[in-house]
Amino acid sequence: MLLLGLLATLWGFLMVISPQAVYYIAESWKSRQDAEPSASYKVVIRISGVICVCAGVATCIGSFFV
Description:
Layout (H helix, E strand, L loop, with lengths): L1 H16 L1 H8 L12 H25 L3
Helix pairs in contact: 1-2, 1-3
């Protein structure tokens, strides 16, 4: 569980720091053009990243008590 928490935390930090990189990893294959992510997409990804970091940290902490 600790490894899963660490991976979730790292992915969440990537989402917060660089939502454009997450777009290219997860969504760019759906378009043939060099489309850029919208501003609302970046906001949603950053909010999701904060939630992912919180869940990852909680999983890491919880893994010590189980």
